[in-house]
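Consider the tokenized backbone below.
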């Protein structure tokens, strides 16, 4: 089948099964599970793929809810990523139900329109994105070693194909002092909460000397037990973000110095715990994104004219993009919506949410078909990727 016929077959099949794709998003919405607890969600997605002829490896990378499903034995090997975790108290307020539904739908569509020898289609069930865990552990375990390209879609208020993501480091600080009665014997105490507050003051003073792309934000996780007891222990949790990991490391060092200074100033000791799972920034591959954009034109869908460096967060998709060419486009579910809100969660199963699922299924399957049909295009994407790693 030529590429024109292949693309028509993809659009036709994806449309004929739209109720199946949207049912996946609705099911996950009704049964939200938080990171590394997605047991029912993972089993549901894996079983769906098995019924469609995929082989499934469960519990990969040491995580019971992670899976790798695959079909075909040709080249290229194309991974489609299915996030599945929900947010505590908010359900699928980041839209991972749409992400999973689109990934499964795109893979099944390709399985039905491509010969097994044409490509290897892989679905990665990636847990705990909100914790920045799943994809990092899967990369470390070599799950992407046999993958040539990776893609996923994310719901948003805009149809935005390309968007930058920041690197992210996480640090926990525990200050240890000495308890005493706050009224009767304050001179006997060493106030650990004062150290936390002093650290926040130090970080706030630091902000005016930070690059514009840098974000430092923290919360107090333990501030004591009662007002009349000088806190002997107090804790805080900080994120440090920047466009590149070198700057993340540099700013992280300054934040740690703020903590050490606060400990000295208040007479406390400080315990510092750095999460070794650092989220990498997204490695933008313009050639790959251009392929996806061309499929939107084919579908007569208009991209939003939005800056790629605004309203940036972080995700473990960045770590995947450091080992394989990766795209992470956004599909629209309603204007004016913001992720991590109850309204966003409900929008994922609205009529616009359903259209977003089908758009993701179709656009990703079409993109994969272009990679299969054009070795020259695949080589161009890979060349850009390899050049990005050498910089």
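A designed sequence for it:
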């Amino acid at each position: 089948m030529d590429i024109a016929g292949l693309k028509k077959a993809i659009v036709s099949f994806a449309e004929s099964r739209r109720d199946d794709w949207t049912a996946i998003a609705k099911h996950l919405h009704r049964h939200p599970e938080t990171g590394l607890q997605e047991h029912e969600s993972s089993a549901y997605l894996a079983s769906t793929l098995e019924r469609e002829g995929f082989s499934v490896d469960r519990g990969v990378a040491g995580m019971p809810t992670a899976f790798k499903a695959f079909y075909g034995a040709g080249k290229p090997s194309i991974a489609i990523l299915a996030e599945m975790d929900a947010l505590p108290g908010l359900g699928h307020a980041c839209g991972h139900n749409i992400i999973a539904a689109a990934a499964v739908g795109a893979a099944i569509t390709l399985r039905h329109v491509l010969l097994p020898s044409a490509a290897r289609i892989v679905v990665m069930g990636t847990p705990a994105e909100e914790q920045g865990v799943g994809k990092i552990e899967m990369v470390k375990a070599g799950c992407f070693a046999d993958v040539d390209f990776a893609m996923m879609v994310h719901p948003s208020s805009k149809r935005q194909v390309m968007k930058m993501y920041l690197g992210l480091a996480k640090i926990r600080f525990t200050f240890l002092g000495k308890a005493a009665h706050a009224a009767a014997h304050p001179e006997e105490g060493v106030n650990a909460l004062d150290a936390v507050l002093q650290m926040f003051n130090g970080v706030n003073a630091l902000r005016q000397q930070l690059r514009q792309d840098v974000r430092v934000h923290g919360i107090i996780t333990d501030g004591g037990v009662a007002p009349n007891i000088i806190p002997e222990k107090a804790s805080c949790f900080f994120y440090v973000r920047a466009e590149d990991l070198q700057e993340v490391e540099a700013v992280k060092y300054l934040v740690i110095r703020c903590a050490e200074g606060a400990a000295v100033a208040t007479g406390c000791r400080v315990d510092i715990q750095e999460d070794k799972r650092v989220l990498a920034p997204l490695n933008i591959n313009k050639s790959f994104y251009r392929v996806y954009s061309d499929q939107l034109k084919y579908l007569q869908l208009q991209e939003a004219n939005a800056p790629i460096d605004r309203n940036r967060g972080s995700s473990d998709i960045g770590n995947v993009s450091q080992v394989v060419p990766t795209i992470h486009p956004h599909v629209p579910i309603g204007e004016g919506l913001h992720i991590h809100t109850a309204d966003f969660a409900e929008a994922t199963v609205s009529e616009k949410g359903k259209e977003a699922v089908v758009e993701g299924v179709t656009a990703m399957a079409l993109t994969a078909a272009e990679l299969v049909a054009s070795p020259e295009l695949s080589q161009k994407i890979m060349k850009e990727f390899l050049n990005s790693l050498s910089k």
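The first helix runs from residue 3 to 16.
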